[in-house]
Amino acid sequence: MNLIGGLKPLITGGSPVVGLRYDDGLLLVTIGRGQRKIFEVHDRIALSAIGHSADIERLRMMATDTASVQGFQSSVDDVTLHRLTNFVLGPTIKQSFEAIFGSAYIIKMLLAELGARGEGDGFIALNYDGTVQSNQDREVIGGTHEAETAMQNYLSAAEVSESSLTAALQLALETWVVGWELGVQQTETDSDEEANEGSELTTDKERLHEVLRDELQAGEIEGAVLETSRRSNNKFRLLTSDEIDAAIADWL
């Protein structure tokens, strides 16, 4: 299954993931339905993904084990997102995608790194063909290219007056809805051309909040941060239910 046309339908219906910088670090947000979707890779690195659950687990373990070995054998300073994505995960995914025999990884990954000494913060998105895209302040993965473009456009257009965790979480959830709706629309069509013709970008906040309420009937918000102020070498933590409830209290 190495053809793009064979892989795309298996990813299209995946729950998008949004990564945003806020005033105390980096935030990853998605909505899951049972299985956990955001993981710690190393002290300052986290990941989430869309795709086949077995592939996600296989590559998550590869990233975690590689980071642990590098940190143990040399130095934690050698454990960087750049090394993991460009020398481990990216080549592995690309090789499987281009292989004549065997199955390609059905996956898109979004990774975040909180750099040491205030340098190197940012996000990297890995596509199912092994290509890499990086951004210091925000990044997304969605079921389709159109969904990701719409999500990026929504983030670009957002009038952000503050970068608190609550504000960042609210913006991330609205962005998730934008990507989710377009992914669902494309899942329900037979071709990209038909999807493009039928896709309508939702940007009205009341409408976004309404869709989110509907989706939360079956799913749960999952979020995690790499927190600068955390008094530990390990900067990763999952968001608490209180933090999530505070962000959506006015929308329910």
Low-pLDDT regions: none
Summed over residues and divided by their number, the pLDDT gives a mean of: 88
Query: What best-fitting shape do the alpha-carbon axes yield?
Result: globular
**Helical region count?**
8
Strand content: 15-25%
> Helix proportion of residues, in percent?
40-55%
Largest sheet: 5 strands, antiparallel
Short overview:
The protein is about 45% helix and about 25% strand.
What keywords describe this structure?
252 residues, alpha+beta, five-stranded antiparallel beta sheet
Characterization of this structure:
The chain is of the alpha+beta class. It is 44% helix and 23% strand. The strands form 2 sheets. Strands 8-1-2-9-10 form a 5-stranded antiparallel β-sheet, covered by helices on one side. A 5-stranded antiparallel β-sheet has the order 3-4-5-6-7, with helices on one face. Strand 1 and strand 2 form a beta hairpin. Helix 5 packs across helix 6, helix 5 packs across helix 7 and helix 5 packs across helix 8. The protein is globular. The mean pLDDT is 88.
